[in-house]
Amino acid sequence: MLRFDHVCKRYPDAGDALVDVSFHLGKGEMAFLTGRSGAGKSTLLKLIAMMEQCSRGTISLDEQNISRITERRIPFLRRDLGLIFQDYKLLNDRTVFDNVALPLIISGVKHQEISRRVRAALNKVSLRNKEKKYPLALSGGEQQRVGIARAIVNKPKLILADEPTGNLDPDLSAEVMHMFEEFKQVGVSVLVATHDIELIQRMEYRVLTLDKGHLIAS
Amino acid sequence: MKYRNNKLSVIRLQEKFEAYLLNHAHGLFSSLGRLSRTPFTSAMTVLVLAVVISLAGGFYVMVANVQQLTGHLQSSNQMSLFLKDTVSENAGQKLIEQLKQNPGVDTVTYISKAQALEEFKTNSGFGDALNALDSNPLPSVIQLLPKRALETKEDIQRLQTEFKQLPQVDFVQVDMAWVEKVQTIVLTVTVAVKLVSALLGFAVTFITGNTIRLELHNRQDEVFISKLVGATDGFIQRPFLYTGFWLGFIAGFLGWLIVTIILLILEGPVEKLSALYNGSFELQFLSFSEFFLLLIMAPGLAVLGSWGVLNYQLRHLKPQ
User: Fold this and answer.
1) Residues 14-53 of A with CB under 8 A from B
2) Shortest Cα distance from B35 to chain A (angstroms)?
3) Which residues of B touch A (CB under 8 A)?
4) Could you give all domains of chain B from N- to C-terminal order, each with its CATH number?
5) Is residue A136 scored above 90 in pLDDT?
6) Which of A71, A103, A111 sits opposite B229 (nearest CB)?
7) With an 8 Å Cβ cutoff, is A216 touching chain B?
8) What is the DSSP letter of A21?
9) What is the average pLDDT across A169-180?
10) Edge-to-edge, what's the strand order for the sheet holding A64-65?
11) Which residue of B23, B229, B311, B315 is the best one to mutate when testing the A interface, meaning the one whose CB has the most A CBs within 10 A?
12) Containing H/E element for A60?
């Protein structure tokens, strides 16, 4: 599903962020990405989300090379990804429903289909009764679940989560992780970047560890 | 099976198109709603645009009116021979007979001092002022029309010099000359107004562009998030383009309203002035088709400005 082949990323002023990184994440596989701050986690996620391009090597998503693509194609490839952020990145002037509907509207999904799929996604994160609320009226855990609903509503092939439990207490974190396991079971690949060692140890999944840009364990 | 697939893809395409149209409709109305949620800021922008548009519209109407005014002036080759004060009525009549013999002259009319005074009194509105004068200040005039055969400028000029040398004649005025002068002035003003209007058009484009740039800046998070969930630049810029459209459209309408109100205020005084000059001049307003054109051009320029800014900015706005 997701393949890194000898990927390097060098910033003109900050030097090497990733050095010769290679790994493969299979369909329906779940893995943690970990490492200290500045180890290259964010860079790796940015490369997958096509926010940046790698300096060398190739990255492929579902057999498509995404490391050398035109600006024009990026939006369409991003629709295969479900991105989840530590700070949720919700639109605070829109309702929960509208936030979750955004990826579907962008993809040009039919009106009735949008309602159906948004409600299904909100059901999955147990927020069906909050669809008319605005994000700021929700707790942090609920906002994160809205973010998750938005990430899965377009049936992505790969879910990328950047510190999804960073702002949540242990109970909520466990709940979020449980959701990820459910997505994995329906064939979605999940990559979770975190430095929550306890969480990683509690759940027995593959761990990709970065150190100064090198992948030291996978 | 293949047939079914084709049919399915046609239906999918149709659905996509419907969703696309729906998205446009949503952009059209949501941008209007968004403008109404910040009434003060929106009103400021719209009013600035409206004033700029009304200036352009006002200049346009002004030129149209002046052109109407000078359109009445036909360029004829009529010559006026102003006679010296010392020339008597009799001598004037004699001169007329003499002129009639001239092969270059078609018709001749004599306007005596007394006739000229009478005409001036009725037409100018300064009758009372003239009554206060002891003697008649106006000269006798002979108006003559050269023969059609003498259409070239040189012929007319030759005739003019010939008459100028007559001892009874003070000076000769060719009407064509001042009609030409007025028409040249009007032409110059028209060109100037067109240039100024073009500048004002640029102003509409840039004012809207700048407003949209600020709006884009305020909604940067939305832009980033939309990009991250797979929005194309086209999708992202759509609501902003509609915002530009509304700004231009409303400002265009207000601009028209301003011009019309000003003309309504001017109508009375202009009518009075026209009556004083015995004229049939009627103040022209913007016609329906001109109003319609304004309602197309104003939003057109506004959308153009927005599009330029969005095109440039969206390429440089990358999610962090």
Assistant:
1) 49, 51
2) 14
3) 15-16, 18-20, 22-23, 221-222, 224-233, 235, 315, 318-320
4) 24-72+181-316 (no CATH), 79-149 (3.30.70.3040)
5) yes
6) A103
7) no
8) E
9) 86
10) A15-25, A2-11, A56-61, A64-65
11) B229
12) strand A56-61
Q: Would you say residue A148 has pLDDT above 50?
A: yes
Write out chain B's pLDDT in tens, 320 residues: 455 567 777 877 888 888 888 889 988 998 999 899 989 999 999 999 999 999 999 999 998 888 887 766 655 677 888 888 888 888 888 888 888 888 888 888 888 888 888 877 777 666 677 777 777 778 888 888 887 665 567 777 888 888 888 888 888 888 777 777 887 888 899 999 999 999 999 999 999 999 999 999 999 999 999 999 999 999 999 999 999 999 999 999 999 999 999 999 999 999 888 888 767 778 889 999 999 999 999 999 999 999 999 999 998 887 76
Note whether B230 contacts A78, CB cutoff 8 Å: yes
In the block, tokens 């001239």 appear at: B102
C-alpha angle A161-A70-B304 in degrees, rounded to nearest 5: 100
Judged by CB atoms closer than 8 Å, whether chains meet at B221 and A108 is answered as no
ipTM: 0.91
Give me B266's structure tokens.
Answer: 């001017």
Does B228 contact A83 at a Cβ distance shorter than 8 Å? Answer: yes
The alpha carbon of residue B3 is apart from the nearest alpha carbon of chain A, in Å, by: 23
d(CA A109, CA A103): 9
Q: What are phi and psi of B248, to 5 degrees?
A: -65, -40
Amino acid at B269: P
Chain A hits for B315, Cβ within 8 Å: 71
Confirm if B141 and B99 have CB atoms less than 8 A apart. Answer: no
pTM strictly above 0.90: no
Select from B141, B159, B162 the least CA-distant residue to B80.
B141
Closest by alpha carbon to A149, among A104, A202, A206, A210?
A: A104
Integer Cα distance of B121 and B286 in angstroms? 36
Q: Residue A135 pLDDT more than 60?
A: yes
Residue A34, helix vs strand vs coil: strand
Average the pLDDT over A146-168 and give the result.
91
B230–A150: do the CB atoms touch at under 8 Å?
Answer: no
To the nearest whole angstrom, how far is the Cα of A108 from the nearest Cα of chain B?
5
Q: Give the per-residue pLDDT at A170.
A: 84
Give the Å distances, CA to CA, from A113 to A104, B15, B90. 9, 10, 103
Q: Give the residue among B59, B313, B309, B42 at the shortest CA–CA distance from B201.
A: B59
Ramachandran quadrant class, A139 (left: phi over 0; alpha: psi -120 to 50; beta: rest):
beta
In Å, how far are A195, B116, B143, B162 from B99, measured between CA atoms?
A: 113, 20, 11, 11
Of B221, B222, B229, the CB nearest to A150: B229
